[in-house]
What we know:
Elements: H1 8-13, E1 27-29, H2 41-44, E2 50-52, E3 72-74, E4 94-96, E5 119-121, H3 133-140, E6 146-147, E7 150-151, H4 154-171, H5 184-188, H6 208-225, H7 227-245, E8 259-260, E9 266-272, H8 281-284, E10 288-294, E11 305-311, E12 314-319, E13 322-327, E14 332-341, E15 348-354, H9 363-414, H10 432-441
Parallel strand pairs: 1-2, 2-3, 3-4, 4-5, 5-6
Antiparallel strand pairs: 6-7, 8-13, 9-10, 10-15, 11-12, 12-13, 14-15
Helix pairs in contact: 3-4
Amino acid sequence: MPAQRITRELLLRRAEHNDGDLATLREITLHQFDLERIELLDVYCRQLRIVFLQNNQITKIENVGKLKDLEYLNLALNNIVVIENLQTCEMLRKLDLTVNFVDDLFCVESLIPCENLRELYLTGNPVAAKPGYREFVICTLPQLAILDGVPITKSDRLRAQQTFLAIKATAAHLPVVVPDIPDPDALDAIDAEMDANFNGAETTSHSPASRMVAARQLAKMRDAKDPEKVAAKDREERRRKKEEARPSRIAKDGRVFQCNEPGVTFAMVETQHSAPAFVEEEDAAGTPMVILTVHVSKFIATELLDVEMLDPVHVRVSILGKLLQLKLPAAVDGNRLMCVRSQATGALVVYMARHDARPGVDMETMVRAWQGAERLRERQVAQEKQQAARLVRESAERKLQMLGQNQMKRVDSSLLPLDAPTTAAVAPAVDDSAVDEADDDMPGLI
């Protein structure tokens, strides 16, 4: 059974009393989670003052040095062997290490920089059974007011000062028992066989190894009775069997099969543009690339996508665990590729430098040069379309004008009589002298 770890989700669940705000969290309770490490507290919860980590499987005090406001740290019933990494916790007032495995009397000297420390609990540790333990701790940590729940009086301090040097000299020759350090491989073997022994040793002895083994065995038995965990395990087993039954994507001889398991649409082009005017020719190097565009739904998180070069002519794109494997039209340099995700459509664009691209040119320069050339080409195409549209419009206007003129002629001809000649008659010429003579015969006006 894998060990329980401190995750951001776990911290959010334990911070419900603070509306899930980890940045301003002052107190957190993480007891009885079978945790084996202290982690992420110094990342998400820098303002913690009280931390409860009792009854876990923690073997080392770590990742708490940045908690400058920490006042109370409870690590009772764990597997702590050495008191360490608390020198920078300047505000620490109370430290509880009840029932751990601390055996070195001199390790309490690491708490000397903690000037605000007032209470220390080491009951149940091997060090508490050593002669002169209380006197040594009282003299080493004069700032203490309570040791193992018993107040320190003035007479205790005087008596400790009188015997401190002798106790220190004796303690220097006392043997320090180092408990068994759990073997991660042996602990992981419990997942396959619950009754496996820890390295063949007796697991009933009180040691960090036996406690961690017992904790994992109990966790495995609890999960075996949890319907949700059983259902999740069944789903994982079905997924594994389905994965094994799926045809192999790579043959035994190394041949790569093309596949499109997610069923997405894609496009692949091979470019060889010249550099645009605003990009230096020596930097663009003609931008020889292979560009793969995969139309992925914008609702799929980018973290669920992965791109991998199998070899110079094959690329693999993983989408939600399903593979898209394609053969490229040209060999590419697997060390020079660039992936861009569209925020509007979600499409994934993979830029891959061809093997004949100029070495030393970074992908951003090549992509910028190609995009500049594409914009120039698009502007030219747009101008050509506008010019063609203008020519079509002018031609249409001319045709409409000619059609209007012909229609006017047909209208004029339709107004003439049916027996009228098609050509106009020429009137005879009139003699002016004859007109004058006719006027002479007319009587005069009265």
